[in-house]
Design goal:
Strand order of the largest sheet: 2-1-3-5-4
CATH class of the domain at 438-540: Alpha Beta
Distance between the termini: 54 Å
Order of helices and strands: HHHHHHHHHHHHHHHHHHHHHHEHEHEHEE
Shape: globular
Number of strands: 5
CATH topology of the domain at 438-540: D-Maltodextrin-Binding Protein, domain 2
Radius of gyration: 25 Å
Largest sheet: 5 strands, mixed
Length: about 550
């Protein structure tokens, strides 16, 4: 066990508690992989099978999702009985490990007592537990990102060269999970160089900044080379161009679903996810001015969303959580050391919000890094609340022992109230309901057992396709008549309709109730295993002889 852990036994306890909580959540609620996790899992399977960096669409290289997470899944798969378990092993391990960097950040900033509370938040906050037990990439990303912030603080504080190198490596690894991490590495490097230029005798800071940049470049370069070769353009990331493409369609008045899954009356595949990533990227270009206009429209739409998340998002544990954050920030005066460390966190938070404001469709999981940073202040706030309660008890004649009890009750009441408020709201979050659909696994397994070869499955989502072992085609956003013509052109083996998705496409509810209006579509599966999500599967027969 690393020395940093053995010197802090409470951290060991909290890591173990976080591990058990995430395992319990996964066992109870992780019936299937989440929608985005399905894509990462299929990339991992294709890597192991030698098919290349290809996702569930099997329509060329997957350029939307960076490579580290699927590579970790592939590695875990060698010692796991299934891809499902490999995904959970990776996410749960990183989720429990989040305790370590957040504890040490808080200890460096505020001392051991607040750090222990931060460790408890990191281990047991319901959103962090649920995300850590899911298959979303944001869980591993947060742990790597928090570790990079810790290394950055150590470097800025002690000016140790190894800490600068560690910062670059960790930001590089975070970039290989979510590409926006390159922005933070760049800002840290530029900030250090500016500080060095403005300070006397700051050579160590300047040298450290260069080491940070070189370490980041060393880790990031293979992915940059891969993206550049695939697109023919020098690229640090590809997700931004894809987001710009569907964002422009949303700015033209389309819903998100139409923007990514739309098909024209002439059967042209116009939605961003209906086309290979490479085609969308190479056919999309914009000037800096056009992007600023694009981001401005997104900003106006996202300001209330981000404000709600930062200020009073119920799933974070509002109102208790945000009250603790404010206490953690402002209950005590800031000296130079606090100004430096809290300044790093506030600057990071500001850049995170700036990135989120330009996103076209903000999901809860995108806010996870905000939550991770605010947990540091919330733990310090709970500690400050306890100190106030203890001091008040002493002022009113209670002895030291009684005052400690009062302080403890106040501290843990605030923490538990935060957890309770979050847990109540969490059950209604659609992000986490994706994993509670075992009927999708059953439907996919049925297709696998009734398909000859690798089935081509058309559905609104992707979970049934994953468990069928097949390749995915999306049901198009268009009219019913055009959708039938699209089926005839694409000739899928199976079409999946679900009660839970009935409002997502213009024709979907009608097809689910009355059937697909074409004689080539034969109903072969009709199950309502959970009592809430009826799944119907149609086999498409266009008269072409089946492959041997």
């Amino acid at each position: 066990m690393p020395p940093a852990l053995t010197r802090h036994p409470f951290v060991v306890v909290m890591v173990a508690a976080g591990l058990l909580a995430r395992i319990a959540w996964a066992v109870r609620y992780g019936k299937v992989l989440d929608g985005e996790g399905v894509e990462y899992a299929r990339i991992a399977e294709n890597l192991v099978a030698g098919r290349g960096y290809v996702g569930i669409f099997n329509n060329g290289a997957q350029l939307n999702f960076p490579p580290l997470y699927p590579m970790l899944i592939a590695a875990a798969g060698f010692v796991s009985p299934s891809t499902d378990i490999a995904v959970r092993v990776v996410c749960i391990t990183f989720g429990a490990a989040l305790v370590i960097p957040l504890y040490h950040i808080a200890r460096r900033m505020y001392g051991p007592a607040p750090a222990r509370l931060v460790a408890a938040f990191a281990a047991l906050h319901p959103v962090l537990v649920a995300t850590g037990a899911s298959s979303f990439a944001e869980g591993p990303y947060l742990t790597l990102f928090a570790s990079a912030i810790l290394a950055l603080m150590i470097w800025v504080d002690a000016r140790r060269r190894f800490a600068a190198i560690a910062t670059g490596i960790l930001f590089g690894l975070a970039y290989l999970v979510r590409p926006e991490a390159f922005l933070f590495a760049g800002v840290a490097t530029c900030g250090a160089l500016i500080a060095a230029a403005a300070s006397k005798g700051a050579r160590a800071l300047a040298v450290g900044a260069l080491f940070l940049a070189m370490a980041f470049a060393l880790v990031a370069t293979p992915n940059v080379v891969f993206l550049t070769r695939q697109t023919g353009q020098l690229r640090l990331e590809a997700k931004g161009t894809l987001a710009y493409a569907w964002g422009q369609r949303m700015n033209a008045g389309m819903s998100y679903v139409e923007a990514v899954k739309g098909v024209g009356d002439d059967l042209s595949e116009q939605g961003v996810f209906m086309r290979p990533n490479r085609d969308v990227i190479t056919s999309t270009s914009y000037t800096p001015g056009q992007y600023l206009t694009f981001a401005g429209k997104a900003l106006r739409r996202n300001i209330p969303v981000i404000a709600q998340a930062v200020g009073y998002e119920l799933v974070f544990g509002a109102p208790f959580f945000f009250a603790l954050v404010v206490l953690g920030l402002f209950s005590r005066p800031w000296g130079p050391r606090r100004l430096m460390f809290d300044g790093i966190l506030i600057g990071t938070l500001a850049l995170l919000i700036a990135v989120l404001l330009s996103v076209q469709d903000v999901a809860l999981r995108y806010l996870l890094t905000l939550l991770g940073l605010m947990v540091v202040w919330a733990g310090n706030g709970a500690s400050a609340l306890g100190a106030w309660a203890g001091a008040t008890a002493v002022r009113n004649g209670l002895g030291p022992r009684g005052a400690r009890h009062v302080a403890g009750v106040m501290v843990w009441s605030s923490v538990l109230l935060t957890f309770a408020a979050s847990l109540v709201r969490l059950s209604r979050e659609s992000q986490f309901s994706e994993s509670m659909r075992p009927e999708r696994r059953l439907a996919g397994s049925w297709i696998a057992s009734h398909a000859s070869g690798r089935p081509r499955v058309m559905e609104f989502g992707d979970q049934v396709t994953f468990y069928s072992g097949g390749d995915l085609m999306y049901l198009p956003y268009t009219s019913s008549a055009t959708a039938v013509r699209y089926l005839a052109r694409k000739t899928p083996d199976f079409i999946v309709l679900e009660q839970a998705e009935k409002d997502k496409l213009p024709y979907y509810a009608q097809w689910l109730e009355r059937g697909i209006p074409d004689s080539r579509a034969a109903l072969v599966y009709d199950e309502d295993a959970t009592g809430s999500n009826r799944i119907r599967i149609y086999r498409w027969d266009d008269g072409t002889p089946a492959a041997p």
